[in-house]
Design a protein that fits this description.
heterotetramer, A mainly alpha, B alpha+beta, C mainly alpha, D alpha+beta, A: mainly alpha, two-stranded antiparallel ribbon, 17 helices, 68% helix, globular, disordered N terminus, C: mainly alpha, Formate dehydrogenase/DMSO reductase fold, 72% helix
């Protein structure tokens, strides 16, 4: 399938892209408001569920399992999405350009997540007598430190988004008719004119902040898993867990990116930005993440299975083989087996529906897996015992739990919808930069693309 | 049948020669190109070689997996000796060994597949020129003896430095 | 990306086949020097096998010492090869071209070296084949597949075979080049090895596919190998060994030390064989950037290992870590390891000037590998020294001269094998260099010519 | 993942009839080392000259460990090492192969040189052993010793060697076998061996009768009786190895 010309898509100009994106950005149609109202009402329902739980109070920890699981799910999808774009930017991948902004816009979800962490911390038992990484000087741990680190991560994420959006905000400022929205945008653009110096600062700043985000994220996952999961399970000495969580998050984030791109193609008609190239290229890391997901899980499983000390055996029974076997198997299929079987086929990888479908499965699997980890941990009555005994049973969600899960997710999406009318959801300047570095050349018998990489 | 080998220095000339030959009803599957380094597919408008390489690793993986299964399960069952209170048929250790054997089978068969699909090994080089690995590009034409002259003409006119001929019956 | 020198195919052949076609004096000198060291090592090992393991420093309860450390170390080194070539092939990074084969061959040879370590460390080496291979015919019983020491050979042999095939497949086109250039006895030999390669589009296409497919298949193997090595320790009950994080921690540590070994190798090659036209600052620079990421990831796992060692407050585990970190000689070893493998090199690599200076990179990469050897030593020995509450057999392990000789010998062995390989085969893939020349292009942006690459998809 | 990680507490898998066990009453042990000597002469264990102790290459199938027992008193002792008699007393505990049911040393051996037989014994097969020494690493009790050198006996003692026991060669691992040669002789006829019919060398030689050996599956045996005592404990029980050697110790005060 090499016979040349038709394989090369026509390369649009910077102006075309700008005009098109600005057009979509400007219009606030009925469909848009429809989606917003649906998400908003779901979000309100979530708040109702949350209030019901709040009424029961924090004495019964097992009530809050699903709430915490939801937080972890949101952290491992929306909060991890900026990492995808930051990493691809560091790797100078050209195909990233059209969806970096989508992933960065998701960073606003962290506002909601940070709010949700507060009650979760309230539900935690005291540190005394149970394992924790705060060792002998709690000094306001875990609450203070958790809030601080979550807050910092959210801050970095949003400032990263803002910085990288400046040129497009400027474009919007010049493009929008005078209105309140335009005034907000003008303020946000902070008088960006695109001076050479400004660009250089933008590049450096985005690189540095991206690096910080990537360095801080594993710490957040470590806090999550050690304070809210491992610390509540007796004798659960699983040093790999934070890393496992990071890998799972990257996988879920990539999956979520694919899903969002697919939906935006279908609903908002962004076909020309999210082409097969994006799906195909993102499917490759997705496959490797899926393999790593299994690898990390297996590394801890084989160690415990072989060690077979009483504490280990009981926890394997609890989390994998007995009480939570169902969720384990489902997420095992959705996060590892399914993606592996589907994505090894190039035809599937090199399509729109394939990666999107796998991504959707992965997102669901991630949710179930987080539920397995955190609800299980919260259902343990006494974290201070030496060996988990008796082994608690699995726990289905109650109506409030369902409301919380659905409401929180739709709340994050709502924030995304809202912010994408302030910050263009497609990064015009990055696409423009990419277009400048591409040319089509006649290579003897056929036409080929030449892609240049700037330093 | 006869065989011609035209030696070119400029890839562009080869591409032109190919077009010219195709124009003169030389069937594409009778044209072949020898080059010292890979060019993007279709650089010379040659016909796309089809292959079934991707079947090989699958078959290999299957064979490797079954060998692993046979070995691990078989030895554990036929020598029922308890060690460390582990179950007599311990699946996790079996998984590791079966995995390794699967990958080994897949890789060995891939290499075999590559050799088979690229029609290697060949006993003799046949019509060939050592300058090809020095940067020349060879254009090979398989044609009935009566069209040799025409083919040679096309090759020389489009810039072949030398045309080698070989008669086959 | 970088501005590449433009070379004709003939030039590439001349420069890269120089060592194959001729035998420079310095090559003879170095090879014979290494050969002498190897002789010494072999006699030392022979003495040990003849006398018994008493000549080593091993003692209760430190049943594993220098040899196992060395084994882990060399398996670690062997990981860079595939890491570099496979990952860079899959991501189609242009700067991979000059380093893939050198890295892969180093994988093969260091793997052979590491494989020899457990064999000579065994109590009765003359019975070793009963261990590694199914041996029903020998004594009516098969190996116990539940033992990590069976997983080990399975994984390593898989890895060894795969990487050797990997090297050979990519070598075929270059063998054809040597065949075409050489005369006399070489011609038939290389002709046979080249399998009658013509270089028609079909063969090239499959050559390319083989690169991608084999990389994709070998990557999971490479991850599994060092994980399985780590499970030798991880699945045991020894305090501070029985840790779940060991698998990825070992793997990424292996990549860290391995990539550094590749850097060392590249720089030495460049000096020894005058490859200035092919190995440039840009390559070392790219490797160094990669190293910053790898080293930092490795640090994360090290940190996890540490905090979760304290996690349960188990007295035995704490004693081991106390021993490692605060009791000489382990404390200073720990300090050296930590300094060498992270604290000194990584900040240096932040500077472009350092990344692009061959001398600096040579020394920092060597430093890292010193550190990584000590890391393995510190992981293995102190954990065994203070294993239990039993008072009677505390022990301080001191390696004997024999063991030290074997360490030196193992380095000499790998170097010697690489030297021999480079005498008969080019260490830089010629055809990949030529391909790079063909695909090189640039895009003009204003006054600037941004170097680019022709992409097929 | 179908295999269930068995809770390590189940004791007799694959056990028919006999399951040999030992009870050691630490309150009777005087640390006289008679058991050590008896074991060495019974099982052809190589001599340990002083150098062997310096090198840390002692060959012992049973050793007497000395530990300090701290008796809590009214006055607080800041550091246990500063405690003195009568607050601290020297105690002895004979350590031999514990013949664990979930023995950590067994599954790590690549060549089945050590495995669990159906009488609850952790047996060592010398001529299978290739000397990877992994078992030695993985034994929490340090019950295994390795032949670094070819074992040699002075000329005068050549005839002292026990003909029922193999003389090990260099490069193999060895450990207590519960005097399996005596077990074999006793069980040769088949059927149940009555209690006290025979004893391992160490038990036989213990002057204070601190050690008892027998078939714990037989409830009427002395071992089974003593094992029921409320003084009983097993070394490093937290590891879940479930040893066949049971120690008896009167727990005074709050200290265990």
């Amino acid at each position: 399938m090499h016979n040349g010309e038709e394989e090369i898509p026509v390369i649009p100009t910077h102006q075309e892209v700008a005009a098109d994106v600005m057009g979509r950005y400007q219009e606030l149609g009925r469909r848009y408001w429809g989606w917003v109202t649906v998400l908003a009402s779901l979000f309100l329902l979530g708040i109702v569920g949350f209030v019901i739980r709040l009424a029961d109070g924090f004495d019964d920890r097992s009530n809050w399992g699903y709430h915490v699981a939801t937080i972890s799910f949101l952290v491992s999808t929306f909060m991890a999405m900026p990492i995808i774009s930051a990493g691809l930017r560091l790797a100078k991948a050209n195909w990233r350009r059209s969806f970096t902004r989508v992933t960065e816009n998701m960073a606003v979800a962290s506002l909601l997540i940070v709010l949700m962490v507060i009650p979760a911390l309230a539900a935690l038992p005291p540190l005394e007598g149970r394992m924790n990484i705060w060792f002998e000087f709690p000094l306001g741990a875990p609450n203070l430190w958790n809030m601080m680190s979550f807050g910092t991560l959210a801050l970095i994420g949003i400032s990263l988004l803002w910085t990288l959006a400046l040129p497009d905000l400027a474009a919007a400022r010049d493009h929008l008719p005078p209105s309140r929205r335009q005034r907000i945008v003008r303020w946000m653009a902070m008088g960006w004119v695109g001076h050479v110096r400004q660009w250089r600062v933008l590049y450096m700043g985005s690189l540095i902040m991206g690096a910080f985000y990537m360095l801080l994220y594993p710490l957040i996952q470590t806090l999550m898993i050690s304070d809210f999961h491992a610390g509540l399970l007796p004798a659960w000495k699983d040093a790999i867990l934070p890393a496992t969580q990071v890998v799972a998050s990257l996988q879920a984030a990539a999956g979520m990116t694919l899903v969002v791109m697919y939906v935006m193609r279908r609903v908002a008609g962004y076909d020309r930005y999210f082409t097969v190239e994006q799906f195909w290229s993102l499917a490759k890391p997705l496959l490797s993440f899926s393999l790593l997901w299994f690898y990390f899980w297996w590394a801890s499983f084989i160690t415990f299975w072989y060690g077979r000390q009483p504490g280990e055996s009981s926890l394997i029974q609890f989390l994998i083989l007995d009480s939570w076997r169902g969720p384990m198997m489902v997420s095992f299929f959705l996060n590892f087996l399914g993606p592996l079987i589907a994505l090894v086929w190039n035809p599937v990888r090199r399509s729109i529906w394939g990666p999107a479908l796998v991504g959707a499965g992965i997102v669901v699997g991630a949710l179930i897996n987080q539920i397995r980890l955190y609800v299980a941990a919260f259902s343990v009555a006494d974290p201070t015992q030496h060996v988990l005994d008796p082994i608690p049973a699995g726990q289905w969600p109650g109506p409030p739990d369902v409301l919380i899960v659905v409401g929180a997710i739709s709340g994050c999406l709502l924030l995304f919808m809202l912010v994408s009318k302030l910050i263009p959801v497609i990064s015009i300047w990055e696409i423009g930069e990419g277009l400048r570095l591409v040319k089509v050349r006649k290579f003897y018998g056929r036409y080929l693309r030449v892609i240049a990489k700037s330093h | 049948m006869a065989k011609l080998l035209g030696l070119f220095q400029d890839p562009q000339q080869v591409a032109d020669a190919m077009d010219e030959l195709k124009k003169n009803e030389f069937p594409p599957q009778d044209l072949d190109i020898y080059s010292g380094s890979p060019f993007p597919e279709g650089t010379f408008g040659e016909h796309d070689p089809n292959h079934r390489l991707f079947m090989f690793p699958l078959v290999g993986a299957l064979i490797g997996f079954s060998i692993g299964l046979l070995w691990t399960a078989g030895t554990q069952i036929s020598y029922p000796m308890v060690t460390g209170g582990k179950p007599l048929l311990s699946i996790p250790p079996m998984t590791i060994i079966m995995y390794e054997n699967t990958m080994l089978g897949a890789i060995i068969f891939t290499v075999l597949g590559v050799l088979f699909e690229s029609r290697l090994p060949k006993r003799s080089l046949g019509l060939y020129d050592t300058r090809i690995t020095e940067g020349y590009i060879g254009l090979v034409v398989d044609c009935p003896a009566d069209r040799v002259a025409q083919a040679e003409k096309v090759l020389t006119t489009s810039g072949a430095e030398e045309v080698k001929k070989e008669e086959e019956e | 990306m970088y501005y590449r020198r433009t070379l004709t195919d003939a030039q590439i052949n001349d420069e890269l086949l120089g060592t194959v076609m001729t035998t420079p004096l310095r090559w003879v000198v170095i090879a014979s020097f290494l050969a002498v060291i190897l002789m010494g090592t072999f006699s030392a090992v022979g003495f040990m096998i003849n006398q018994g393991l008493g000549v080593t420093g091993l003692r209760q309860p430190v049943f594993w010492g220098f040899f196992i450390t060395n084994f882990v170390f060399w398996v670690g080194i062997s990981h860079a090869g595939v890491m570099i070539s496979a990952i860079l092939r899959l991501s189609q990074a242009e700067w991979r071209r000059p380093m893939v084969r050198a890295a892969e061959t180093m994988t093969v040879f260091s793997l052979m070296c590491s494989l020899s370590m457990p064999l000579i460390h065994a109590g009765r080496p003359w019975r070793i084949f009963y261990w590694v291979f199914p041996y029903d015919w020998a004594r009516g019983i098969w190996p116990d597949v539940r033992s990590p020491l069976i997983w080990d050979p399975t994984a390593i042999i898989t890895y060894l075979l795969s990487s050797s095939l990997f090297v050979y497949t990519a070598l075929i086109p270059d063998l054809a080049i040597i065949r075409d250039r050489s005369t006399g006895w070489r011609r038939p030999v290389y002709g046979a090895l080249a399998l009658g390669w013509h270089g028609n589009p079909r063969q090239w296409k499959l050559q390319g596919l083989a690169g991608i497919l084999l990389s994709a298949l070998i990557l999971p193997v490479f991850v599994s190998v060092h994980s399985i090595v780590s499970w030798d320790f991880g699945v045991s009950l020894v305090p501070s060994w029985h840790v779940t994080v060991f698998a990825p921690y070992f793997v990424i540590g292996a990549v860290h030390s391995g990539v550094c070994a590749v850097v060392t190798l590249m720089i030495v090659m460049r000096k020894l064989y005058k490859l200035e036209n092919f190995i440039w600052e840009e390559h070392i620079d790219a490797l160094a950037r990669l190293l910053i990421v790898v080293a930092t990831g490795w640090m994360f796992f090290f940190w996890l290992d540490l905090i979760y060692a304290l996690w349960l407050r188990e007295e035995q585990e704490l004693t081991v870590w106390m021993l490692r970190m605060f009791e000489p000689p382990w404390s200073w070893m720990f300090l050296v390891f930590f300094m060498c493998s992270y604290v000194i090199p990584v900040p240096l690599w932040m500077f472009r000037r350092v990344r692009r200076s061959f001398t600096m990179m040579l020394w920092t990469s060597l430093l890292v590998n010193v550190g990584m050897f000590l890391e393995r030593f510190i992981i293995i020995v102190p954990a065994l020294m203070r294993k239990g509450p039993m008072t009677f057999d505390y022990a301080t392990y001191r390696f004997s001269p024999i063991e030290f000789t074997v360490l030196g010998g193992s380095i000499a062995l790998v170097a010697f094998l690489l030297l021999m390989f480079s005498k008969f085969f080019p260490l830089i893939p010629l055809w990949e260099e030529k391909e790079g020349q063909v695909l090189a292009d640039s895009v003009r942006v204003g006054k600037l010519d941004v170097p680019g690459i022709v992409k097929e998809h | 993942m179908a295999t269930q990680a068995k809770p390590s507490t189940d004791t007799n898998h694959g056990t028919i009839g006999h399951k040999w066990a030992m009870v050691i009453d630490l309150d009777r042990c005087t640390g006289c080392q008679a058991c050590v000597i008896a074991c060495q002469s019974e099982n052809n264990v190589r001599f340990n000259e002083e150098s062997a102790f310096h090198e840390g290459r002692v060959m012992q199938w049973i050793r007497v460990e000395r530990y300090w027992e701290h008796v809590p008193t009214g006055k607080q002792v800041r550091d246990d090492r500063l405690a003195e008699f009568p607050n601290v007393k020297a105690r002895f505990i004979p350590i031999l192969c514990q013949h664990c049911d979930n023995a950590p040393c067994e599954p790590v051996c690549p060549v089945f040189a050590t495995y669990h037989n159906n009488e609850g014994l952790n047996v060592q097969v010398y001529n299978r052993c290739v000397g990877t020494r992994y078992c030695g690493n993985n034994c929490p009790y340090h019950a295994r010793s390795f032949n670094y050198w070819e074992p040699v006996w002075p000329e005068s003692l050549q005839n002292q060697l026990n003909p029922d026991v193999t003389v090990r060669t260099r490069g193999v691992m060895e450990k207590c076998s519960f005097c399996i040669q005596r077990i074999r002789r006793a069980t040769r006829g088949g059927g149940e061996v009555e209690d006290g019919a025979f004893d391992p060398a160490c038990v036989q030689s213990c002057p204070t009768g601190a050690m008892t050996f027998g078939n714990i599956n037989n409830d009427k045996s002395r071992v089974a009786e003593l094992a029921k005592s409320e003084r009983h404990f097993r070394v490093m029980e937290g590891l879940g190895t479930s040893p066949s050697v049971i120690y008896l110790k009167k727990v005074d005060g709050t200290h265990a």
